[in-house]
DNA sequence: AAAAACTGTCATGTC
DNA sequence: TTGACATGACAGTTT
């Protein structure tokens, strides 16, 4: 995420500078070109900036609709031709968007580095340019700097420029004109931003005010256009996130973006995008592609597995028998872990064949994929169908994600490929290693029931089976054609899943009870200590009272006199309180025998 | 390597 | 009768 933010910031800065340079540069060389010819790509750049500014990508066709640039038209979400070809099923379009996700990840990382270089280079240029007094000198300076660039960058620059000249896409007018144009066309307005909203760097605003020309390689702007586009397509990380609240609307940006982002080569006709890169970069591209492919969220691959199961019809009883060979299973099913990898491998197999690790999904490919999706299907309803029935928030919403990733590795469909082929999905080159690593990981992460369900091609996820209400569960069982084995396994899965949750709750409760009891013990111990302290204090108070009473007793007796005026001996007499509050002097013998000998020596206290 | 903790599963009982 | 749930017991896994 940080890298994405960094990328966007860097590109934001670089793109604005390049935009300014491009307009100024083109105004020097091609003043006769129409503004519309530059409008679309520049709009795109600004829209790209808007993403970095506003935090979301305003992926609307209107961004591309107003320009006359054939490149922009090609960059549109879907060509009219392609739209006709492509099935209209909404979910079927989505894979194109996410399908190139891993490649876009790769490009994103690559772009990140490229932008780093670009931004650093631009900063250097800016520093040098500030010392120049006129734009001509600045222009010469930039030309010199281009010559000083690494070979691959210079090559990229010259190639792009040649490309522009050949295609007649060079346009020219001032940046102010551009902004006026953009703001004067509401139908092409950039969603969510206005020119005033764009925090243009000081260099740009200065450039606008002073009409100073900045010289930036516009070809880089175009190439970054492509790459950033891909990067931005990647930006909705929720592609790889299991978002229960995701709706078809949230997928819409992918639909709109996919076609013009899937193939960057199309953005520059006749140009191989990889040709811009040095062998080192190509190598890096390969590395990042594979690494990122492997780094894809395991959960997504789990969904892939489930979805592939739901769409597969090449049921292999051997796999099932191997998988369900475990002795502890109900329903007579068992699972031999030693066969997991093979089973999963076959379960993950698709009906598509990869053709080289190009990493880009063209529109043609996406349409092929649509055909594929229409071709597959067995006795079980499509997962997407399930998704729209009862379990919109269950695991099946991941079918979109599944199709993304699935399509990511699906390049060309070979309709003639036999569906019963054990390995219809071939992983190109080093991807074999990645696939095996992925399969190991996913297989390791799958629970036993998930593997069983996969082996029996049960078109429901374990979570669904366990979590749905009993009514939905029963209706689900009756609605789909399921064998006895499948029904039995589903019921076992549900029973085990329920019991698992119950056991977890039970243990949690037990733990809570233990914790509560421990807490009670602590509280009681504290209370005991408090009571001990209170008892000690009470004893002390009692002793004090006793002492006071004793002193008072002797004080009273010291003042008492008998009939003859002699002091009363406290050993022979005792003081006794009556109910009315009077105090009597009672001889101890009488007091002990219960007889009261009243004297008139009473004294009130 | 042993022990404790954790986890999944089964059997059984209750509601 | 059926399903959900709770819980003791056991076994396998992890720490």
Automatic annotation (TrEMBL):
<feature type="domain" description="BZIP">
    <location>
        <begin position="489"/>
        <end position="552"/>
    </location>
</feature>
<comment type="function">
    <text>Activates erythroid-specific, globin gene expression.</text>
</comment>
<dbReference type="InterPro" id="IPR046347">
    <property type="entry name" value="bZIP_sf"/>
</dbReference>
<feature type="region of interest" description="Disordered">
    <location>
        <begin position="70"/>
        <end position="169"/>
    </location>
</feature>
<dbReference type="GO" id="GO:0000981">
    <property type="term" value="F:DNA-binding transcription factor activity, RNA polymerase II-specific"/>
</dbReference>
<keyword id="KW-0539">Nucleus</keyword>
<feature type="compositionally biased region" description="Low complexity">
    <location>
        <begin position="330"/>
        <end position="343"/>
    </location>
</feature>
<dbReference type="InterPro" id="IPR047167">
    <property type="entry name" value="NFE2-like"/>
</dbReference>
<comment type="subunit">
    <text>Heterodimer with MAFG, MAFK and other small MAF proteins that binds to the MAF recognition elements (MARE).</text>
</comment>
<comment type="similarity">
    <text>Belongs to the bZIP family. CNC subfamily.</text>
</comment>
<protein>
    <recommendedName>
        <fullName>Nuclear factor erythroid 2-related factor 3</fullName>
    </recommendedName>
</protein>
<keyword id="KW-0804">Transcription</keyword>
<dbReference type="GO" id="GO:0090575">
    <property type="term" value="C:RNA polymerase II transcription regulator complex"/>
</dbReference>
<dbReference type="GO" id="GO:0000978">
    <property type="term" value="F:RNA polymerase II cis-regulatory region sequence-specific DNA binding"/>
</dbReference>
<dbReference type="InterPro" id="IPR004826">
    <property type="entry name" value="bZIP_Maf"/>
</dbReference>
<keyword id="KW-0010">Activator</keyword>
<keyword id="KW-0805">Transcription regulation</keyword>
<dbReference type="InterPro" id="IPR004827">
    <property type="entry name" value="bZIP"/>
</dbReference>
<feature type="region of interest" description="Disordered">
    <location>
        <begin position="243"/>
        <end position="277"/>
    </location>
</feature>
<dbReference type="Pfam" id="PF03131">
    <property type="entry name" value="bZIP_Maf"/>
</dbReference>
<keyword id="KW-0238">DNA-binding</keyword>
<dbReference type="InterPro" id="IPR008917">
    <property type="entry name" value="TF_DNA-bd_sf"/>
</dbReference>
<feature type="compositionally biased region" description="Basic and acidic residues">
    <location>
        <begin position="142"/>
        <end position="167"/>
    </location>
</feature>
<feature type="compositionally biased region" description="Polar residues">
    <location>
        <begin position="243"/>
        <end position="276"/>
    </location>
</feature>
<feature type="region of interest" description="Disordered">
    <location>
        <begin position="320"/>
        <end position="348"/>
    </location>
</feature>
<feature type="compositionally biased region" description="Basic and acidic residues">
    <location>
        <begin position="106"/>
        <end position="130"/>
    </location>
</feature>
